[in-house]
Amino acid sequence: MRIREITLQEVRMKLVDPFETSMDRTDVRRILLVQADVDGVIGWAECVAGETPFYSPETADTAWLILRDFLWPLIKGKEFASASEVWDLLARVRGHNMAKGSLEAAVWDAEAKQKGVPLSKLIGGVRDEIACGVSIGIKESLDELAAAVQKELAAGYQRIKIKIKPGKDLDPVRRLRQDFPRIKLLVDANSAYTLNDWPLLKQLEGFYLMMIEQPLGWDDLYNHVELQKKLDTPICLDECIHTEEHARAAIELGACKIMNIKLGRVGGHTVARRIHDLCQRHGIPVWCGGMLESGIGRAHNIALSTLPNFTLAGDVAASKRYWEEDIILPEVTVSAQGTIRVPTSPGIGFEPRLERIDKLTVRKERLA
Ligand code: MG
Fold this sequence. Notes:
Order of helices and strands: EEEHHHHEEHEHEHEHEHEHHEHEEEHE
CATH superfamily of the largest domain: Enolase-like C-terminal domain
Structural class: alpha/beta
Strand content: 15-25%
Distance between the termini: 15 Å
Number of strands: 15
Number of domains: 2
Largest sheet: 7 strands, parallel
Low-confidence stretches: none
CATH topology of the largest domain: TIM Barrel
CATH architecture of the largest domain: Alpha-Beta Barrel
Bound molecules: magnesium ion
Shape: globular
């Protein structure tokens, strides 16, 4: 296989509802789409880097620069046997996993299309449907939050995750447990706390949460080890896990009992699968997190979520929760039971809507 050319394209998409976390508030997404022409077959993927460097150090702008000036020159003209070799070809660049992951995932889509198989099957997936949960941003009032949860439960979603931050933690959780005593509930702090806050996090244990996601520093495994010793509730790590080595350290040290795997954060399907396998061997369940993706990134998340150890419902939800109109056909829909059917057509299994994508595009560059 050889990549003949890649096309970078930035689209702007306005979210149906602004999304607020402890670190940022997003209204309009700047999404970098990557097309890779692999021996004449086009693969698609999405770079999940944000508008700001507040979740991770990468942004849509840094990803564009790294893809154009460093990753493309590394892989241009190289022959390889499978998409699984792309990660190693890009290894000279340190970090920038979201940039790498977008190029890598586009090649996976192309390979699946060349072989005429669904991407989920090519990466080793075993499910024909995946379980879906939702991630709900920080709301102004408790009533607003409870109403948002009610709406998602009515739509069928199997578990609810809410974003928390200091001052918006105990009260929201208490309210939700009053209104919805039996739902599967978790919280995500996006690194908003320090180890000194452990007594407060301990109080959350009274509300039988499934897990507390990324309470402490985004690159701080040590304090998560200390915190997990004090808590019975499992810690789930998100921001801390960028590599297979991070995942191994987190497991061996006892920094978490559950892992959130995001394709972009770990650099694509190859490393995501290695982390998945590692967690499986250690009895650590995983689930797929979301990055406010368009349909293209969502399609990759669906494929990833079919691997056997994705035993917990993830944040992969319907297109319409995010967009008036998505950029793929068909749009991603969720059943009344809170599941998504995994597509059976080749590649990501959803058709990019080229006209709509071009209409939303603010810049485009072909690299050959
Ligand atoms: Mg998270």
